[in-house]
Amino acid sequence: MLAIFKKEINQFFSSVTGYVAIILFLLANGLLLFVFPDTSLLDTGYANLDPLFDLAPLIYLLLIPAITMRCFADEFRSNTIELLSTKPLTWWQIVLGKFWGSVLIVAISLLPTVVYYIAVKQLSIDHHQLDNGGILGAYTGLLLLGGVFTAIGIWSSSLTNNAMIAFLIAVFTCFIFYNGFDALSKIPALSGGADYYLQMAGIKFHYQSISRGVIDSRDVIYFISLIGLMLYLTKLSLQRKLWQNS
After folding, report:
1. What is the largest CA-CA distance in the chain?
2. Which of 26, 79, 99, 146 measures 20 to 30 Å from 35, CA to CA?
């Protein structure tokens, strides 16, 4: 599994695409947080990073599918998936190696956002103490969200040998899981009970709960369960495609 993990990281950073994806993520966050007037935290009058945690999931909808779209699509296109299957590795080791490699890349893309924390702290009156506990909880939620989007992206990549199709499937699926259930819950006919359960089925409900700094075990279990489900579906997809090609 460690070899797959290293290969995934090296493959991402061996081309300019990986660096461009992370730079664009940081640039988009920087513009939204400090330049564009509608979302600039400089115009809110409060020293907090709430805009970052509100906007980052929307940017992740594009960034993480871009990171994961080649995970298995390139293996299918170059026929190296069959070579992987003959190695002394289980399917779970292959899937988890790809997953943790991609998660590390997502975590690396988050590290530079610490600069935003420092900037907000320095810009606040008398360097006002920020809610560090709440910010740490929000970062935890963002990492869990990144893990779910990564699992969805890897599953999407296991469905096709075309990286662009895998990207589009991942973007659509992440959007449905993140915003689709929440949007459905707002249908008037579903109000009065069903709307709450629909919200709970979606990622946004649980992410917003953690992003407020409250780490509830139910939210953590939800994220871990969804990650496990998507990785299990990825394993099934790989086994099915290999069986069809044999």
Report:
1. 68
2. 146
Taking residues 85-111, report their average pLDDT.
87
Residue matched to tokens 């910010």: 135
Least Cα distance to 67 among 11, 132, 127 occurs for 11
Tokens 């893309």 belong to residue: 109
Between vectors from CA 19 to CA 17 and to CA 22, what angle results, nearest 5°? 105
Report the C-alpha gap between 117 and 112 in whole angstroms. Answer: 10
Beta-carbon contacts of 216 under 8 Å, excluding residues fewer than 6 positions away, are: 209, 210
Tokens 């026929």 — which residue? 79
- Direct distance between the N- and C-terminal alpha carbons of the chain, in angstroms, rounded to an integer: 24
pTM of the predicted structure, to 2 decimals: 0.88
How far is it, in rounded angstroms, from Cα 34 to Cα 242? Answer: 48
Give the count of beta carbons closer than 10 Å to the beta carbon of residue 167: 22
What band does 129 get if pLDDT is binned at 50, 70 and 90?
A: low
Q: Encode burial over 12-43: b for 16+ CB neighbours within 10 A, e otherwise.
A: beeeeebeebbeebbebbeebbbeeeebebee
| Encoded amino acid at 94, one letter | I
Q: Return the beta strands (E) in the chain as ranges.
A: none
